[in-house]
């Protein structure tokens, strides 16, 4: 286990219900941070989020989830504001959302390319942008 004391810190993790994101949520929470995380709201995501919250809550951690597309600036701004209110600030942001598309260039179209950019890059910009006021406030 990582021995980092994050007691009193408040984090927002995008894409935190499964895989690497769930691992990030677990580590932050077990190190003492209060953690908010997003997921897509799919059946799989909802189930995984509920299990993660139940596990961490049982361990005494404070976690909360939000359904929001990471590439939607307005939705993420609402998540950041609500999470900051519920957690009494935000001082950590982890832009974790991403996906790997494997397709030959000759079948990849511009719409697919844009979708990859929006999910993998624009979502990271949005996560940091919407949390920035609280990061600056926290110093």
Features of the shown structure:
139 residues; alpha/beta; 4 helices
Protein described:
This protein is globular. A four-stranded parallel sheet has the order 3-2-1-4, sandwiched between helices. The chain has helices at residues 19-30, 43-58, 73-87, 110-138, and strands at residues 10-13, 34-39, 63-67, 92-94. The model has no long low-confidence stretch (mean pLDDT 95). Helix 3 packs parallel to helix 4. The chain is an alpha/beta fold and 139 residues long.
The count of DSSP E runs of length 2 or more, i.e. the number of strands, is 4
Main β-sheet, spatial strand arrangement:
3-2-1-4
Helix content range of the residues, please? 40-55%
Task: Provide the β-strand percentage band.
Answer: 5-15%
Structural class: alpha/beta
The mean pLDDT is: 95
Topology as a string of helices (H) and strands (E): EHEHEHEH
Main sheet characteristics: 4 strands, parallel
The rounded Rg comes to 15 Å
Number of helices: 4
Approximate shape? globular
Distance N to C terminus:
27 Å
Low-confidence stretches: none
In short:
The protein is of the alpha/beta class and 139 residues long.
Topology diagram in text:
Blueprint: E1 10-13, H1 19-30, E2 34-39, H2 43-58, E3 63-67, H3 73-87, E4 92-94, H4 110-138
Parallel strand pairs: 1-2, 1-4, 2-3
